[in-house]
Amino acid sequence: MAATNEQSMSEIRTVIKGAVEAYTASDADRFVGFFTDDIVAMPPKMAPVVGVEDWTKMCMMFARTSKSDVVMVSKNLTVTGDTAIEWHVEAITSTDNETGESKRSYTKGIWIFRRDDGQWKIAQYCWNANPEVEPE
Fold it and tell me: What Rg do the C-alpha atoms of the chain give, in angstroms?
């Protein structure tokens, strides 16, 4: 029996919550687990990161060098079959593990989800800077 859009949206929101919790905890292994093996991530001012191996390396580097506190607000979630698109705004306070220096940044992003074998994962991720406005 196929999942309804409401069921799918609930499942995706659970994935989003888990991914944000893992990122905030600097748990790169858990964070990467929310992404597909063929993830395509498009960070600002960088080449695309393709595949879970390179994505893991990038996430591990961030987890080793800083601790982040994330406030994320999902603005829209659309589900069509086994694909979903979610866009969000974030405010991130990053603290350098070595110096203790903190900075606040603001981003907007899009996650494209794919349901494989009944499980929702993030297949593509694109983000960039946002004006310095707290997410609502």
Answer: 15
